[in-house]
Write a structure and sequence with these properties.
The complex is a heterodimer of chains A (about 325) and B (about 350).
Chain A (H helix, E strand, L loop, with lengths): L5 E12 L14 E12 L3 E5 L6 H8 L7 E6 L2 E2 L5 H8 L2 E4 L13 H11 L5 H14 L16 H13 L5 E5 L7 H18 L2 E5 L3 H7 L2 E6 L2 E7 H6 L4 H9 L5 H6 L30 H5 L5 E4 L2 E3 L6
Parallel strand pairs in A: 3-8, 3-9, 6-7, 7-8
Antiparallel strand pairs in A: 1-2, 1-4, 4-5, 9-10, 10-12, 11-12
Helix pairs in contact in A: 3-4, 3-5, 4-5
Chain B lengths: L5 E12 L2 E13 L4 E5 L6 H8 L7 E4 L2 E4 L2 E2 L5 H7 L4 E4 L3 H4 L6 H12 L4 H14 L5 H5 L8 H14 L4 E5 L7 H18 L2 E6 L2 H7 L2 E6 L2 E7 H6 L4 H10 L1 H4 L3 H6 L22 H5 L5 E2 L5 E2 L9 H5 L10 H4 L5
Parallel strand pairs in B: 3-9, 3-10, 7-8, 8-9
Antiparallel strand pairs in B: 1-2, 1-4, 1-5, 5-6, 10-11, 11-13, 12-13
Helix pairs in contact in B: 4-5, 4-7, 5-7, 7-8
The chains are: A alpha/beta (about 325), B alpha/beta (about 350).
């Protein structure tokens, strides 16, 4: 279990939103269990992708893992040491190693800060560089993402979406993190730009020996970039496997449906394909179904699925599935 | 040939501002047959949505459309009065937009919004319109229509809202449905459902559907014919099988290479250099700055959309036959434009 190359691990990680406290003035609100007991290991140097529909808890899991949001219960460990309850100075020191990039490159850059200040800020915060060294470190980071050092004096509005996303990547790289959680970073970009960005992510990983936690709803992109994939449904990991294994032998009925829903760029294949579309939409996380949360839409569901929650079990080496009746 | 339901020739859209006119769509010509499913693919800013909106007079302020002709069922769309257009909008040509939340009025019930469309186009009583609205909701797969009619948009999920806007679009029993990125905001599983829904409705009603999307792979599932737009121009028009099996325009080839990682190495140079952009009014081919096959000619003269076989048209100097003889063999609306017509007059 305690393999030395596990960089980040969660055990029974649970995150709830909303408040349970009710009083005369504050009536009881709905509690949403965004994460419901997730066990996940991220190996150093790998790209682990999180996929699933909106509301499945992908972003919540990534944020809880890098300690952007606190866990309600369960634990998170960074290189073997528990960071679930770190706060203050140790937490700040930790942030250096775990960075995050967000979907919207327009919302995640302060329009008033020059590019140089935005990229340099993490270095100042962590006391890693100042003065002339700061400048050269910033230029170095910008060069890593293919931008000229002269852009440091300009402001975000002067850049296109793709360039802004590069700036966000440069900022995340500034303090030389070990892990980067990328939350739908390609979704706001045009198709032809995605190819370039994927290539950039690949190069950076190689050069800086990074680990990626890559969140995407685009299964085509995930297939290209990731080593392993975790499929999420309603706050739980329902399948975890290496990328080739997951795409060639999906075992969970949900993964099956998800892969079948992705169009293949070939009309002849598409016409002969039978894609049994999933009936309905994901249930609300505020009122998850009993047993296996997927049973309401699952074509293979039996009585047991309604009552008993399946555990994530390893069916083949490196391939875990949470299902009573896997394919 | 004359059976085309929609026949557009040399459509152009330009914005007129203080800095002068900027042409964002130029030289777009295509036809739509009754019952046909056509896909228009392009990136943001390629002019795909603007071209479609211009046909219904729905351009934003400051934008103007002109065309050699843009006929719907024999009527010249661009010279109709607002009243005449209103008789077509929703009734003959309906649109489903990308974001169902902004397409629906948050303070009116779903029922009110659907019956409004029905009563606008058909002389029916309120009760009858209400009944029809219920049937429409059932037809687009919304359970418990009677209850749902009394609810407001915020009580629906994203996929369900999009079903509502599809029901509204169907209310006028249109002959053409323009689906402008209707599934972009939705999850893949919901996308598959919505796409399947529109396809089955198309089979039932015999309407034509124009799918506007940036997702080329999706078109493999739904389109019989694919129009590829880049930088405000139509660069390729071909049956879906041919676009995917043997794309002719370098831009289409690069797009496909991006979709198929296993083949990407073949087109590494292109896929890495393809970027959104291009100016429809620029001299030369809009794709020339990024094109691996660009020649001197591409930078000076925009290639016309020319027929290279019976059903394939491509706007590329590296592909199309250069002899005017070959171009003059076809006639009718599909005939390619002469090179001089391709360089647009500046307004």
């Amino acid at each position: 279990m305690s393999s030395p190359n596990i960089i980040l691990a969660s055990r029974q990680l649970t995150v709830t939103y909303g408040t349970a406290r009710s009083s005369f003035l504050r009536p009881k609100r709905n509690i949403v269990q965004a994460l419901r007991g997730v066990d996940l290991d991220i190996y150093a140097g790998e790209t682990l992708a999180l996929v699933g529909e909106s509301g499945s808890g992908k972003s919540t899991l990534a944020r809880a893992l890098v300690r952007c949001i606190p866990a309600s219960s369960g634990s998170v460990a960074f290189k073997g040491s528990d960071i679930t309850t770190s706060s203050g100075r140790p937490l700040r020191a930790l942030r250096r190693h775990l960075q995050m990039i967000f979907q919207d490159p327009f919302g995640s850059l302060n329009p008033r800060l020059s590019i140089g200040s935005a990229v340099g800020e993490p270095l100042i915060v962590h006391g890693l560089a100042s003065g002339r060294e700061l400048k050269s470190r910033v230029a170095e980071c910008l060069a890593l993402v293919g931008l000229d050092g002269s852009v440091a004096n300009r402001r975000p509005h002067e850049f296109s979406g793709g360039q802004r996303q590069r700036i966000c990547i440069a900022r995340a790289l500034a303090c030389r993190p070990e892990l980067i959680a990328a939350d739908e970073v390609l979704s706001a970009l045009d198709l032809s730009l995605r190819g370039q960005m994927l290539e950039l992510f690949r190069q950076l990983k190689e050069r800086l020996s990074l680990t990626y936690l890559f969140i995407s709803h685009d299964l085509g992109v995930v297939r290209q970039i990731s080593d392993r994939v975790a499929v999420m449904y309603l706050g739980r990991v329902v399948e975890l496997a290496t990328t080739p294994e997951l795409y060639s032998h999906p075992r969970h009925p949900y993964t099956h449906a998800l892969l079948a829903a992705v169009p293949i760029a070939d009309p002849i294949v598409e016409r002969s394909r039978q894609y049994a579309s999933l009936p309905g939409e994901p249930p609300s996380p505020a009122r998850p179904p009993s047993g296996c949360a997927f049973h309401t839409r699952c074509p293979r569901a039996v009585e047991r699925c309604r009552t008993e929650t399946p555990k994530l079990t390893e069916l083949a080496p490196g391939h875990s599935v949470a299902c009573h009746r896997p394919h | 040939m004359s059976a085309a339901l929609l026949d557009v020739e040399k459509l152009a859209v330009s914005f007129v501002g203080r800095a002068g006119a900027r042409t964002v769509v130029a030289d777009v010509s295509f036809q739509l047959e009754p019952g046909e499913a056509v896909g228009v693919v392009g990136e943001s800013g390629s002019g795909k949505s603007l071209s479609m909106l211009s046909l219904l007079g729905l351009l934003p302020d400051g934008a103007h459309a002109r065309a050699a002709h843009a006929r719907f069922d024999g009527r010249e769309l661009l010279s109709l009065t607002t009243a005449q257009l209103n008789a077509i909008r929703g009734r003959e040509i309906a649109i489903v937009f990308q974001d169902p939340l902004t397409a629906l009025n948050p303070v009116l019930t779903i029922g009110r919004q659907i019956t409004e469309v029905i009563r606008r186009h058909f002389p029916v009583s309120k009760a009858e319109a209400n009944q029809r609205a219920g049937q429409l909701l059932a037809r687009v797969g919304i359970p418990d229509p009677a209850l749902r009619l009394r609810q407001y948009p915020h009580q629906f999920s994203g996929g369900m809202r999009q079903r509502v806007t599809i029901a509204m679009a169907l209310a006028g029993e249109p002959r053409i449905l323009i689906a402008d990125e209707p599934t972009t905001a939705l999850d893949v599983t919901v996308q598959a459902e919505i796409v399947g829904l529109i396809q089955s409705l198309q089979r039932q009603t015999g309407m034509s559907v124009i799918w506007v999307t940036h997702d080329l792979a999706l078109l493999a599932r739904i389109a019989e014919r694919v129009l590829v737009m880049y930088g405000g121009r139509l660069v390729e028009d071909a049956p879906a099988e041919q676009v995917f099996a043997s794309p002719r325009h370098p831009y289409t080839q690069a797009l496909l290479a991006n979709l198929r990682p296993e083949a990407a190495s073949l087109a590494q140079g292109t896929s890495a250099s393809v970027q959104a952009g291009g100016d429809a009014a620029a001299v030369g081919c809009p794709f020339a700055p990024r094109c691996p096959q660009a020649m001197d000619k591409c930078r000076t003269t925009a290639p016309p959309l020319s027929a290279i076989s019976e059903r394939v048209r491509v706007a590329c100097w590296a592909v199309s036959p250069e002899e005017p003889m070959a171009a003059s063999q076809t006639n009718g609306p599909t005939s390619p434009q002469s090179p001089q017509a391709a360089s647009l007059p500046k307004p």
